[in-house]
Amino acid sequence: MPNAELKKEHAAHGKEEPKLKGTFISVMIVGALLILSWVGVFGLFLAR
Fold first, then answer.
1. Residue 43's pLDDT band (boundaries 50, 70, 90)?
2. DSSP 5-33
3. Does the pLDDT of residue 46 top 80, yes or no?
4. Which is it for the CA torsion 39, 43, 45, 46, positive or negative?
5. How many whole angstroms separate alpha carbon 12 and alpha carbon 8?
6. 12 burial via Cβ count (<10 Å: 0-12, 13-18, 19+)
7. How far is CA 28 from the centre of its chain?
8. CA of 14: how far to CAs of 2, 8, 11, 17, in Å?
9. Which UniProt keywords apply (predicted)?
10. Using CA atoms, how far apart are residues 27 and 35, in angstroms rounded to an integer?
11. 2 has a pLDDT exceeding 70
12. Would the pLDDT of 42 be above 70?
């Protein structure tokens, strides 16, 4: 039952959760750049 009380309290405030789609995409891009740079440096290491 505590879950129902939280929903009522949340609805009473009238605030919606912020949209985080842009943040998620930005984090994925930064993560991909980190992985690509790591793979590139590792490839250079193996080529030597």
1. very high
2. HHHHHHHHHTPPPPP-HHHHHHHHHHHHH
3. yes
4. positive
5. 6
6. exposed
7. 7
8. 19, 10, 5, 10
9. Membrane, Transmembrane, Transmembrane helix
10. 12
11. no
12. yes
**Residue count of the chain:** 48
Instruction: Give 7-39 pLDDT, tens digit per residue.
Output: 665 656 667 888 899 999 999 999 999 999 999
Q: Per the structure block, which two tokens stand in for 22?
A: 């842009």
Which tokens hold the place of 25? 């995409």
The rounded distance, in Å, linking the Cα atoms of 35 and 38 is 5
Alpha-carbon torsion (8, 6, 10, 17), positive or negative: negative
Among 24, 4, 1, CA closest to 12: 4
- Joined together, the tokens standing for residue 21 give 């789609």
